[in-house]
Protein: GntR family transcriptional regulator
Organism: Phytohabitans aurantiacus
Amino acid sequence: MLQLIAGAVNDRSARGIAAAVSRLVHAGELPPGARLPTVRSVAQALGISPTTVSEAWRSLASAGAIQTRGRSGTFVTIPGRPRQRLRYAQLTAGPSTLPHDFSTGVPDHDLLPDLAPALRRMGDTRLTTSYLEEPVLPRLEAVLRERWPFPPQQLTVVDGALDALDRIITATVRLGAHVAVENPTFPPLLDLLEQVGAIPVPVTMDSEGIAPDALRAALACAPVAVLLQPRAHNPTGVSMTPGRAADLAAVLAGHPAVIVVEDDHVGDIATAPAVSLGAHLPDQVLHVRSFSKSHGPDLRLAAVGGPGALIAAVADRRLLGPGWSSRVLQAVLVDLLTDAATTRTVETARREYAHRRAQLSMALAERGVVAGAADGINMWVPVRDEQVALLTLAAHGVGVAPGGPFQVRPLGDHVRVTVGLVRDGFDDLADILAEAAGARHRASGPRPRSLHRGTR
């Protein structure tokens, strides 16, 4: 295969190598599932730098022609339905058909602020006079800077936290690069890393966030980035403490080339304060703040702040695509963030989510199940057998997310429950979860009518 590839390359630039391999793939000479030679061996055969081959491999991975499977190697992509291959798609594939779907990870719609008053207050919506205007409304930038956990050199706004992560990863991570990630972590993050051919390095967590010793060990792999969720971690609910942030910053201080990407996806409904490594390493930290959970998923807005060069790379690349996030929605967000009634609504939601977490956690503990739900809207529940648990829950009409897609390295069987959607019937749901988990639990009374009717 090495000779086949080397013989097909006429242009030894990254673009030429990618084009040659692509032709071989489409011609069927490199069949689906075929393992490609290593970057180093191709470079030696062509008499060029491995960096050039890595760039070609990255282009092919971005186009979906090849995929990297960590240490197993790089392979020609097997045709199939891409959505089914995504870890993200596995979370709600089955539960969405069940009457009680607690798999989604979305906030309770009834706890979100009403957007109608903000829309009425907007008035003149002629907010764009040039396609090359700054991507962030000046009023919104001023409000964001007041709320940011450290003084960012630059800010921009994108279409949600996943859009931010996608653009940051595309701009900073190359094929074959190592990236340190929490274990467990949010599945789409692993999907994004796979898309660029990066290798995730799992980092153990404890009750305060990433463990410093685990991060130190991960740095031995020379990662280009560390990706973490500073509060209300999905799926465990863990929030990083200020002391832990200082400890992690001390570990990273000797690695100035490593970028830290913080995904603060829960924002204002988190009970934990906003904490960032950017307070210690402002030149290395990109902080993402999403408003989907607190103010509404349909706003599709998240802010990114950090080093000017990195933010500019993200903002400038967007000029060739969407250009900017809707300035109308940005104006709505400014109104929501500065409106006293909206602030009270978000505070009410924060208290209600805390109440729901506490109620279900307490009910599960009484049945011998200790689940993680320190903050946010999700609960990480250990089970004896994940598939058995999913089937047991489905038999009761309850859908949850499987724990496997969240894990970089196996941590034992789990399921994730979006506890933020559980409005009542905590004892009844705890009985079902305890049964699914394989725990011994006391029998409860008849199933509450609210859960029986299918309400959340």
